[in-house]
Amino acid sequence: MLYFTIHDTKMFMNKLLKNEDFDLFCLRSIDIITFASFQITGNRNKDYNTTEEQESQTEKFCMWSEIRPYAFQIIKGNRLPKSIKIIFSLNEKEKEKFADASALFLNIQFENNIVSCTTGCSTQTFTLDKSLEYSWDEWVISFFKKKEIGIEMIS
Predict the structure, then answer these.
(1) Degrees (nearest 5) of the Cα angle 35, 26, 73?
(2) What is the percent of the chain where pLDDT is above 90?
(3) Where are the alpha helices (DSSP H) in 57-128?
(4) What residues are paired with 7 via a beta bridge?
(5) Adjacent-strand bridge partners of 120
(6) What are 122's strand-pairing partners?
(7) pLDDT tens figures, 11-56
(8) Three-state DSSP class for 14?
(9) Number of folded domains in the chain?
(10) Rounded mean pLDDT of the chain?
(11) Helix (H, G, I), strand (E, B) or coil at 59
């Protein structure tokens, strides 16, 4: 598990909320506190979609790209939110590259103008082997590097 902070909060929030940089993630949940508390769960409501749409959707959770515009509308304005908490999981197609992974998480928290992130993973079977966790952590570090997002590890 990694715990790190983001060097440039403004740049990161632009990449998160305005760009497609995080669109490969599924949204498990987002909590936004501004003048009111907003909570969005990413559980997909399959009954809302047509049969054809249901068949084409492989994800149990909504993609960030589907929720991002709504989150941006809540957050944008002249005042910073009091806090934002996001739980992402890697989409099914990308997750298949990690053997024995049940879910791979990236948790993002914004509070007091600081963005911090943690990683986490769950396995399909119980194991003491940490290789999945290490592989996921390496993937996340590489992802942030490719997106040119500076991070600082916290021990």
Answers:
(1) 30
(2) 83
(3) 64-75, 92-95
(4) none
(5) 105
(6) 103
(7) 999 999 999 999 999 999 999 999 999 999 999 987 886 767 666 6
(8) helix
(9) 1
(10) 94
(11) coil
SS3 state of residue 90: strand
Classify the phi-psi angles of 112: left when phi > 0, otherwise alpha if psi is within -120 to 50, otherwise beta: left
Task: Compute the distance between CA of residue 99 and CA of residue 110 in angstroms, rounded to an integer.
Answer: 31
Which among 87, 68, 90 has a CA at the least distance from the CA of 24? 90
Look up the domain containing 133 and give its range.
3-153
Cα→Cα distances 8→11, 52, 107, Å = 6, 42, 17
3-state SS assignment for residue 154: coil
Amino acid at 72: F
3-state helix, strand, coil in the chain (%, to 5): 30, 35, 35
